[in-house]
Design brief:
Layout (H helix, E strand, L loop, with lengths): L11 H6 L1 H4 L7 H14 L2 E5 L6 H10 L7 E4 L12 E6 L6 H12 L4 E5 L2 H6 L2 E4 L10 H15 L7 H12 L2 H4 L3 H8 L3 E7 L3 H15 L4 E5 L18 E7 L5 H16 L5 E4 L5 H23 L7 H12 L1
Length: 337
């Protein structure tokens, strides 16, 4: 797939605007579908999705989307190793945008040694040379901006391995383009939301399928806006984290609560109660209600909007969202020993 002609890979704003169109990736090739069918017939015990950082977000979205649709275990792994119980009956999908992520390479090589079939999603690097089944990505993007491209590979591939109907991502992308037109009325202009967050530390909270969206928002705040951010999950936060919110920090911390219209009623009840408790402590939670007719529409509409918020926040702070010099410095120091 080639990027839309008006997409500037050196401009994160341009890449975020292209988000819906980037979902419209090439469909799985017939050879990939046959490989998935053969693996199912050989006896598929589970699927491991390997990845780190921005390259792994699509894996987390895929796990969340499929856990209620398949009995096949689908795991997301962010480490140098894979669980001991993973053997040749598990399929690996290794995702590294650069193709050189050392943790992903190590886990992939361990899977190969155990005889696991592997698929690799990458734009090049060592991973592309080690893959039997290669799903190529266009080069030149920051990994986090490649989320829609990676999801358009990982989700249908995993669905095919699980013998599920493939999600129509083209239609989802078209709906996202329409949703952008109603951002200001559905939520607020991204610049206004960013202004509310300026000088505060967000704690993104989500339940059910919005948990990975909260995590993505935290990561995008870190990398784009170059500021602190955290995330938490409902209901788990009700059993520990709620005690850490004190009235003395109400001006510093900003709970950003992501609410679904189709999630579990129990979790929605918990979110309402959590909001009330935080308000009574003096916090001003920011409530963002997801829009869409399905889990994937809710997830991606909020993701797209929050990506735009973090870019507006970067503009307000006068920082370059493309720059990741500290990540680069850390990697260089590790490699030099």
């Amino acid at each position: 797939m080639t990027l839309p002609s008006n997409t500037d890979t050196d401009d994160m704003h341009s890449l975020v605007r292209a988000f819906p169109r980037l979902l419209e990736s090439d469909p799985l090739e017939e050879a990939m579908l046959r490989a998935c069918t053969d693996l199912r017939h050989d006896g598929l015990h589970g699927i491991c999705l390997l990845g780190m950082g921005g390259s792994s977000i699509a894996n987390q979205y895929t796990v969340s989307l499929l856990q209620s649709r398949t009995k096949t275990p689908v795991l997301s792994i962010h480490d140098y190793s894979i669980p001991e119980y993973v053997d040749h009956n598990y399929v690996m999908i290794a995702v590294s945008y650069s193709g050189n992520t050392e943790e992903t390479l190590a886990a992939h090589r361990e899977a190969v040694r155990r005889g696991s079939p592997t698929f690799c999603v990458t734009s090049g690097g060592a991973l592309s040379r080690e893959s039997r089944h290669l799903l190529s990505l266009p080069e030149g993007l920051p990994p986090r901006a490649a989320l829609p491209l990676i999801l358009a590979k990982v989700l249908p591939l995993t669905e095919a391995l699980c013998n599920l109907q493939l999600t129509d991502l083209k239609t989802v992308g078209l709906k996202l383009e329409e949703m952008v037109k109603s951002w200001d009325s559905q939520w607020r202009p991204p610049e206004d939301t960013a202004g509310d967050l300026l000088g505060r530390i967000p704690v993104f909270m989500g339940a059910d399928h919005l948990v990975p969206v909260a995590y993505r928002a935290k990561c995008q705040t870190n990398e784009n806006a170059k500021t602190e951010a955290f995330f938490s999950t409902i209901p788990e936060a009700n059993h520990n984290e709620i005690e850490g919110f004190t009235s003395g920090r109400a001006k510093l911390l900003c709970p950003v609560i992501l609410r679904s219209g189709i999630g579990r009623e129990e979790n929605d009840r918990r979110i309402k109660t959590t909001t009330e408790v935080l308000e009574n402590l003096g916090y001003r939670p920011l409530i963002l209600r997801a829009v869409g007719d399905s889990m994937i529409e809710e997830m991606l509409s909020l993701t797209h909007y929050l990506d735009a918020v973090t870019l507006a926040w970067a503009d307000l702070r006068g920082v370059d969202p493309i720059d990741v010099s500290r990540i680069t410095l850390l990697k260089d120091k590790i490699h030099r020993g």
